[in-house]
Amino acid sequence: MMHHISRLTLLLGAAAALFFPSCQTPPPLGYEELPEVIQERNQLRDDLIRLLPEEQKNNPAAIKEAQQLADISYKAAAAIGRINKPTRWPGWRNNAAINSSYNWALERGLCWHYQHDMYRELRRTPLTFFQPGCCVYKEKTSREHNCVYLAAKNDGWPHAIILDAWKRGGRLVTLKDDDIDHD
Predict the structure, then answer these.
(1) Omega before 60 cis (within 30°)?
(2) 3-state SS, residue 82
(3) What's the mean pLDDT in 22-30?
């Protein structure tokens, strides 16, 4: 009997992971200042600095700008998540609710809503060493997804870092160039 309970628990866990892989609610206020999120922001800063030409990587102004962009990116993603109010459903179910004609449907929260809001926030910042842009990740596939990227000035996609605020409902996900398949 104990063996069946364990198998049932494993089966239910696997089914939950399959059908609810990205269940998220918006980040709570103060999320951006959690130690682990500050560590992620600092990692993004370091990844941004690696995008720069060699002669700029130790420039204090470039390092300051990279930190500013990292901080803005995480704070904006969280705020956008709170505005869009994702449910505990996976992203695809939020999309179905937004695209439906039911009265209970959500009005915002598609990946391109997050993309536009993130891009607007990043463009507000005067930049010398970096530039934001918009991209469609996995374009023309069933996994097509609108994101924002950050690249070194005068460079761009695909030598960039993708910022995805939608996937985890306002908890920023980043992809570096070496994480991206360019098919």
Answers:
(1) no
(2) helix
(3) 75
- Bond from prior residue into 90 cis (ω within 30 degrees of 0): no
Structure tokens at 11: 């089966």
Q: Tens digits of per-residue pLDDT, 144-165?
A: 889 999 999 988 777 899 999 9
Q: Exposed, middle or buried: residue 110 (CB in 10 Å: 0-12, 13-18, 19+)? A: middle
Q: What is the largest CA-CA distance in the chain?
A: 67
* 80 φψ region: left (φ > 0), alpha (ψ -120 to 50), beta (else): alpha
Token reading at 182: 């360019």
List the structure tokens of 174.
Answer: 């980043």
Calpha distance 95→145 (Å, rounded): 12
Dist CA 95 CA 13 (whole Å): 24
Residue with tokens 């998220």: 24
Is 12 exposed, middle or buried, given 0-12, 13-18 or 19+ CB atoms closer than 10 A? exposed
Structure tokens of 57?
């990587």
Q: How many CB atoms lie within 10 A of CB 101?
A: 5
C-alpha span between 4 and 37 (Å, rounded): 40
Question: Rounded to two decimals, what is the model's pTM?
Answer: 0.78
